[in-house]
Design brief:
284 residues, 6-stranded mixed β-sheet, 3-stranded antiparallel β-sheet, alpha+beta, M1 Pyruvate Kinase, Domain 3, 8 helices, 9 strands
């Protein structure tokens, strides 16, 4: 992430130069609008987070602070706006500086991918309630460091498009609080989504998979049949390794036996120099 003192924002797109402006972000592939499935989710255009909320969450949970709040991977970091107020701004308009106006659509939930990137165990759960919001850019312009921020007083739920969050009950629930049914449903939805995404954005799928694999994670849960196949493959590999080990051992034993047979027979001559006889006449 790169820090800027000033950025240009375009209505309907986001921050100029941002990966999501170019539609090349890790999660750009998950783009479907809940209200208009043929269109992109509008709330993925720009993200906001309250600095104090993240800092307090890390402090309360006894975690190290981030080197920079930019590592939390939100587009705009706000100071002076309470985290609770920002998280409750769903359906409200927020004005950034003198020109830019955004509409808050949903929470921007933290992810395990960024936790691994930051190297802070527990970051996702610790910041779940204060991780920021996803917004649609209604009016573009320039945002500068030190600009004022004003949150609209009136919320209009009818304008909200939560995207994946509306179709997946587990999306906005912290992993530690999800029921077994939620977990299974979440996995099933992601697996079902994969086939569709491979058709509409195969490059985005590959990009997401590579990002997750770079930190040792899987973006899409593997189907049970593949997990069983992997387990069988591991057992097969183990059995092959044991078999090869036995063959190597037996080959070693045979080589040793041949070596012993090839060695010349060495004999010694013993000379009896003294004989001691006991009363029975036996000598030793």
């Amino acid at each position: 992430m790169v820090d800027f003192d000033e950025v240009e924002v375009v209505a309907g797109r986001g921050i100029v130069g941002d990966r999501y402006f170019k539609r090349q972000g890790t999660y750009s592939v998950f783009r479907t609008s809940a209200k208009q499935p043929s269109r992109r989710e509008p709330g993925r255009q720009l993200t906001l987070v309250a600095a104090e909320g993240i800092e307090e969450a890390l402090l309360v949970n006894g975690m190290d602070s981030l080197g920079s709040l930019g590592e939390f991977r939100r587009n705009v970091v706000l100071r002076g706006v309470p985290a609770a107020e920002l998280q409750a701004a769903i359906g409200r308009e927020i004005k950034l500086g003198d020109e830019v106006v955004v509409l808050v659509h949903r929470w921007c939930v933290p992810c395990m991918y960024n936790e691994r990137k930051c190297g802070l165990d527990g970051l996702m759960e610790a910041t779940w309630e204060v991780a920021g919001v996803c917004c649609e850019v209604l009016k573009g312009g320039t945002i500068k460091l030190g600009d004022t921020v004003s949150v609209g007083e009136t919320a209009d739920p009818s304008r909200v498009d939560g995207g994946q969050a509306e179709s997946d009950p587990a999306f906005l629930v912290a992993p530690s609080k999800r029921s077994k049914a939620m977990v299974e449903s979440h996995k099933a939805r992601k697996n079902a989504m994969l086939n569709h995404l491979l058709k509409v954005d195969p490059t985005g799928v590959v990009r997401g998979l590579e990002s997750y694999q770079s930190v040792g994670l899987q973006l899409f849960p593997r189907a049970k049949r593949f997990r069983k196949g992997e387990a069988m493959e591991k057992r097969f590999c183990t059995m092959v390794a044991i078999f090869l080990g036995l063959l190597a051992f037996l080959a070693g034993v045979q080589r040793f036996q041949r070596w012993r047979e090839e060695q010349p027979l060495v004999t010694r001559s013993w000379v009896l120099t003294d004989a001691i006889c006991d009363y029975s006449g036996l000598c030793f």
